[in-house]
Design a protein that fits this description.
heterodimer, A: 351 residues, globular, B: 180 residues, Wheat Germ Agglutinin (Isolectin 2), domain 1, two-stranded antiparallel sheet, 7 helices, 2 strands, 8% strand, elongated, ATP-guanido_PTrfase_AS (chain A)
């Protein structure tokens, strides 16, 4: 059954490929928010309406896309949590939507959430910096769905959304970016305000309100009105290019000026990961970030780059409990996490 | 999202309680939150709500957002389709349906200006189905911007081309009638 595949594999297959600038940009994502004209927004929707709508929307993408539909009410809290940790659904859809559903592609690069905060949230993902490509894909899906349903659209305000922060394009374009160099050289605190002045936001790995675990940040557009989709994406791309340049020069500076310190940090973290018996999420994330930096710089050669992405997701509480087959106390989780990381790294070394 | 306590009203307060590293999330409406405040918040008084935050952000000097109790006769601004009141919208920060945008149109422009950095008009994608002259109008707006740029850069030949294109589009708009 495909639910099991979505739940058991930590790494979506789209993630195992590399994209442009994969050394720094982990992934690109575009999300389009859409609503149907003739239904109340999800907060005020009745069960039967929600179900009708789910069918209509699924029909829109039936041809040409092989999407699997998962209904939220049929998933356990733990299964939902795993999908959140993989970024396939939002915490909001998992916690709240009684009549929510998600349509997923086999490689998990397409996820269409139904009855989240808006009726439809089309999400497309790709490795590396590929924002234009994912926007194009999301637009195609949008057109396909529009063929079957009538969208709530206003000439002045654009696509009407449940929250006024999404109205207009309904577009949220974002990149997941690994910035250990800028964090170590303490430059990020200077860069973040500059980014927000341009109408973009920097957040932690799991979106709004989340911490920046393992030096991974999410940069996305704040504004959805007054700029076209293409302009928003172009602006984000140019910001990301600048950040990449800064990150690269920070890494160079670190490698040139305090090479032995950096090497020490990388190998200490590697030591922690390969030897610890109890490890918390935060420490694991930090060590994984250091090891990934070590791989990028060339200190560590026998480990694949995707280790950071993979283990970051695999060692989240939901995944650990899914593997254990049931709920775990925080300390049991920390023990499992340590064991899992050790096993995974040993596997790499033996390759 | 509906309040997890009364299961009737929409939840407007969302918070996470962490005990020994174990996180528990709560989603409550304001009424239940006030009633259960002590239970959830360890005796801390609820003197601040999401409504305050949004009300402050929107900062509208209308009787609807400030002390509605003092104006019992005041006509309540309400969406005729989903019955969401403007006050409810301010409290939740969410519209009830697409028609709310029209019902609260006058109040909405200043809110959008604040949230969207001064922008209030959509310039992006248009659904193919809406069609009509809207696509043409959008292209005309884009061409006009290009024309301005061409003039500023003193590229008069291309400016003339763009101007002709704008004229032909404008004719098309007229011939296709006023529908949009």
């Amino acid at each position: 059954m495909s639910l099991e595949r979505f739940i058991n594999q930590a790494v979506s297959s789209w993630m195992s490929n590399e994209g442009p600038h994969s050394d720094i940009v982990l992934s690109s994502r575009v999300r389009l928010a859409r609503n149907l004209a003739d239904y109340h927004f999800p907060l005020f929707l009745k069960a039967n309406e929600a179900k009708d709508m789910t069918v209509q929307i699924s029909e829109g993408v039936q041809d040409g896309y092989q999407l699997e539909r998962l209904e939220m009410e049929q998933l356990s809290p733990l299964q939902k949590r795993v999908l959140v940790e993989k970024h396939l659904i939002s915490p909001y859809l998992a916690d709240n939507a009684a009549y929510g559903a998600v349509l997923l592609s086999e490689s998990e690069d397409i996820s269409i959430m139904i009855n989240e905060e808006d009726h439809i949230r089309i999400q497309c993902l790709a490795p590396g910096l590929q924002l234009k490509e994912v926007l194009e894909k999301a637009n195609e899906l949008d057109d396909a769905i529009e063929g079957k349903v009538k969208y709530a659209f206003d000439e002045q305000r654009g696509y009407l959304t449940s929250c006024p922060t999404n109205v207009g394009t309904g577009l949220r374009a974002s990149v997941m970016i690994h910035l250990p160099g800028l964090v170590l050289t303490q430059q990020l605190s200077r860069i973040i305000p500059a980014i927000s002045q341009l109408g973009f936001v920097v957040r932690g790995i799991y979106g709004e309100g989340s911490e920046a675990l393992g030096n991974i940040f999410q940069i996305s557009n704040q504004l959805t009105l007054g700029k076209s989709e293409a302009d928003i994406v172009d602006d984000l791309i140019s910001i990301v290019h600048q950040i990449i340049a800064h990150e690269k020069s920070a890494r160079e500076v670190l490698a040139n000026t305090s090479s032995i310190r950096l090497e020490d940090k990388v190998f200490r973290s590697y030591g922690v990961l390969t030897n610890s018996r109890i490890i918390e999420t935060k420490e694991a994330a930090q060590c994984l970030s250091d090891v990934r930096l070590g791989i990028d710089i060339g200190y560590i050669r026998n480990i694949s780059r995707s280790i950071l992405n993979e283990l970051m997701i695999l060692t989240q509480p939901g995944f650990l409990q899914q593997y254990a087959g049931g709920p775990l106390h925080p300390e049991e989780r920390d023990i499992r996490r340590a064991a899992l990381i050790r096993e995974r790294l040993q596997l790499e070394e033996n390759c | 999202m509906i309040c997890q306590s009364c299961k009737e009203r929409p939840a407007s307060l969302h918070f996470t309680k962490t005990v020994n590293g174990e996180k528990t999330e709560f989603h409550l409406c304001e009424k239940c939150a006030q009633e259960k405040g002590e239970q959830y918040m360890f005796n801390q008084h609820f003197d601040f709500s999401i409504g305050d935050l949004l009300g402050g952000l929107f900062n509208l000097n209308t009787p609807f957002s400030s002390q509605p109790a003092q104006y019992p006769q005041q006509k309540v601004l309400k969406c005729g389709n989903c019955q969401t009141t403007f006050q409810q919208f301010v409290n939740q920060g969410k519209f009830g349906c697409a028609q709310c945008y029209e019902a609260f149109q006058d109040q909405l422009t200043p809110i959008l200006k604040r949230l969207q950095n001064g922008n209030t008009v959509h310039t992006g994608k248009i659904p193919a189905r809406i069609g009509g002259t809207l696509h043409l109008k959008k292209e005309i707006a884009e061409l006009k911007a290009k024309l301005q740029q061409a003039i500023e850069q003193e590229e008069f030949e291309s400016a003339a081309d763009i101007r002709d294109q704008i004229r032909s589009f404008e004719k098309k708009v007229l011939s296709e009638g006023g529908e949009s």
